[in-house]
């Protein structure tokens, strides 16, 4: 095999003889990259982690980085303490005794382990330097997002170019990578990991294709990475197969076959063991009486079989009378047998007592495991066949010096990661605790950790990823097939001509980078959050394989008596053919989008979520798009009429020569059109009016949906100096921490959270389980959910009493819930519990206080005496008026009604009018006044609708008008006025359609 003795790659494809195409590729390719990178940064993703970052960054800047958690009453305590040490294994206690507890606390601290601490500091510093601590400039974080992903697209592009991909397909691969990951790009520390994965793979490519010394760049990169995000562990994970592959591929052919086969068996068995273990966990979770146990290494007959197979493999290698071909055949048969034996374990019989929901969970797990096993086997076979077929001509092998540099750089990186991180060894061990500990699976209930092809997942989209996934499999399979076919044809031709080996015109492929991409894609299949990094790793490889496939097809005339192309002409032909393929693929995907897109979202009951019909529709469209490239190669070959490309005039027929300029213009038009569309969409969504809120309208607020965060509720908390323990919605905990005034000496926030988005970094799984149980509403809520109905009034009272009992155990006297929880059992339960009253309400938040506690009683009483202060007149009138509406005292309801009406006049929006309709309209003495307000507002809005349209917060006014119209329709129906009722129905439907249309247009 071709050994890289110097660590330098062969020269990249030259531009000689193709200057026009090169200039076009440079201009259009770079334009497309920048447009796709810009487009990727415009996606709206809710910013739960962003506000955690701001709160933590402020704390670290003001109080330093330590493990003392300042925001929550249920978080880890700093340590280790002497009591904790007593629970450690004997060897750990011995070390602690020898070095001292203080030394252990320094090098292996426990408590709040914030692996993203440096990102948090960067976020806080950026916003306050461009703004101020009192008024941060949050758009600075938007600039950070754009900078991160522009750097990422450059890294992906140059990785592809280093591998030998031409400029046009390299630019297309980079743009595709950004498009695939777009729905998961948000403003949070994971953005650094996305960038640094691309940079790390670029460093591996530089090491392989340029110079061994580039590998030392991983030292500063990973040390920085280990302080900005816990994803740094990826670097160590992929460095192992990268170095391991190059160690294996240096072996003699017989040993290469044996070691490769044995590793394949081990990986297949490991996947199966993992599958069976999870299956046993699911069985025990839903059917504890079955006591399912996964096979262990000690009692699994497959282990014995694998050991015997490995022994036979080594024996065959040593037995010199067995030819190399026979050794290869024996291992191929053994690998197939191992695969079939293990595949049989992926067809378990489900328990007969499963209901539909549990059956779906089991079916998803079985389908995912089965396809993973099949995919691993196909990958191993395809790679093995290609490597053995290509041999020395096309497989890059790093020499010992490069490998030693890689191992040395990895060791230094590990030491640097430990030394230059405030958590030292815990920075490493914490990663394993949250990834592979017994409770790690519990945290994977979070949507972003679900499998990529879980179509019901509301976080991000996997459709572009599935397109890439199918293309990757097709490219790998076709490339491997053509490698074997070309090798066989070349051997046959050599036997006839007696020719010597000819040097390949293509740079050798580093299979180690292909394995890195495959591993990253597997990570994405298991957890959706890794889709972006999978795209960054895989897209350059896919582009390279497609380019090689085209090259193979264009040179199949070699050895058939046809005139051979020169190297320059071959590269020119490949460039143009890939260009034709790209244009044809765009046309196919466009047609498929028009015809099949509506069918893509039709779920079919009974199918596992990962194998819904949409999978096959996407696979079909992707197959057609991929087929455009070999079809373009066949087209170009046919157009040459069997003549050599190196001859004057190139031997091409006119229709071939005219095809590639047409393709170039089509692609240029597509890039320009897409760029214009992106620009116009950005203006419409981020610069024009914002319908969701009249005040919080910055680009950052829109991009992160932060206008829904409790800005005014936190102002209420600050102004009234609330302290103690609260129960909050998980994803809003970080904002509540940020929105308080921490103690200047300790950084501790006065009102302590129950839970927040830091998850494993700050909480034990017991806290998460407890939060989930309380929010669910307890036994009464579960009973109603199981029966498929809403709780009754009596059950709501039971829920409220149960929730109160749970919260009292933790001294919780404040509950803050967002609008998306207003109609859930938990909130309704509190509203039916006399000890809980609403102390703050607006259109987006409700804050309850327990009035049986002293601070709760004082805050509630203060609403009526003026001692409780509010951020604005709207919330003061709305909150106090709502409480008076539900009062049983004489005259209080009328007063409360007028206060709610005043709030509605101050801010015409859904919250106050809903209280008018749902609370005030229940009382006969208030009903006429409610009807009067609805008529007044509906008439006024319709008369002034055109002047309101296009203003910030317009959808709030529109929804309020729709709700008023609902009431007017009810009145018309009660009066028997059918004509008016139909008029109001049409008007209501028009408002609803307009509201939804605006919301959809303003969502990206």
TrEMBL record:
The chain crosses the membrane at residues 27-48, 136-156, 168-185, 197-225, 231-248, 255-276, 301-318, 325-347, 367-390, 402-420, 462-484, 505-525, 531-556, 577-595, 615-638, 659-680. Keywords: Membrane, Transmembrane, Transmembrane helix. This is Uncharacterized protein. The lineage of its organism: Bacteria, Pseudomonadati, Planctomycetota, Phycisphaerae, Sedimentisphaerales.
